[in-house]
Amino acid sequence: MKIKEFISVTLLIAGTTIGAGMLAIPLVTATAGFVPAMVITFFVWVFMFVTGLLFLEATLWMPKNANVLSMTGRFLGKKAKILSGSTFVFLYYCLMVAYFAAGGPLFASFIDAIFQITLKGWAIYAIFGLFFGLIVGVGIKFVDRVNYILMVALFVSFFTLIAIGNKNVEIEKLFFQNWKTMLFAAPVLLASFGYHNVIPSLTFHFNQNPKLMRYSILAGTLIPFVIYILWQYLIIGAVPTNVIEQTMKAGKPITEALQAITGIGWVQSMGRIFALFAIITSMLGVSFSVVDFLGDGLKMKRYGKDRFLLCLLTFIPPFILVSLDPSIFVLAIGIAGGFGEAFLNGILPALLVWRGRYKDKLKSSFSLFGGKITLSVILIVGFLVMVLESIHIYKQYIQ
Length: 399
Known about the structure:
The chain is mainly alpha-helical. It contains 16 helices and no strands.
């Protein structure tokens, strides 16, 4: 296993994981308190790490360039293929909508500050989508290089925020606990730990090396786990509860409330820089995998004119949706995690491996511990998260 490849894959997984979902995490965990937030974050990380390994196991049974559609069609049949395909489109377009909703205005504010060009309305999201659509259109090598730079900038801006904001953390606020609301944070956390979509692309790009992928998945998900804990420590401990509640009701990312930590305007600006990098790194991984997915489903090439058309199909639908409703951020993240991630990156990998191991008797380069018991627990947890999100949507938007 080459160190350079390990770092590259790890950062791509971490970059895909750390995204717009992070900007919603404190909004849904603050009502439970910091200790319950740590507990539910840990269990969601374990769940998503384990299901990532299952997804890798299923990927290694497939021929090169296979994706979710091919995998589901082979192991679970045509109906399951249609269901997984529909869920994939639903999930990742929800995430892309969230990225546009949170990232577009941030990107526009930087254009205004640097070039004194003020963008308004749909133009904000059009320029945002065009700029990053071109990056994805070039291919994985360019995405990889851009991701390196952005991840370094993300870490610098994040730890700068932590260093500044730590002085304003009120320790007594961290001891508040309301365990009853803890589980309702699971859907947003699932969306925040989503990286499974890049596993097929990375597995085949790096010559189907199971050892490289296993260690990269572990390291690439541990980095977001640590960052998410520190992030919740900062927000829950330093931002007034009423400010968090107001931000939640407005459907905006938590970075809009960062000025409340110190009252200093540039702290909010630093928060916006961090937020933009977090969104971009995740969006690059997600959009790259959507291009691969659509190419697999539509039997199109991943280069030339076909890649251009695939990029249009990836970026135009979320652009239209967010132009119609710019305040859709928190709702899009919750639905993505509660339904899309729970099924596609929880239930589906368990079903694929169950069929491959116990029905088709396929041999694996490695097998996850626990056998049928582990797979059964994953299936139950996946269904439970979908139920929780259904209850949350009913109480929040329907009742």
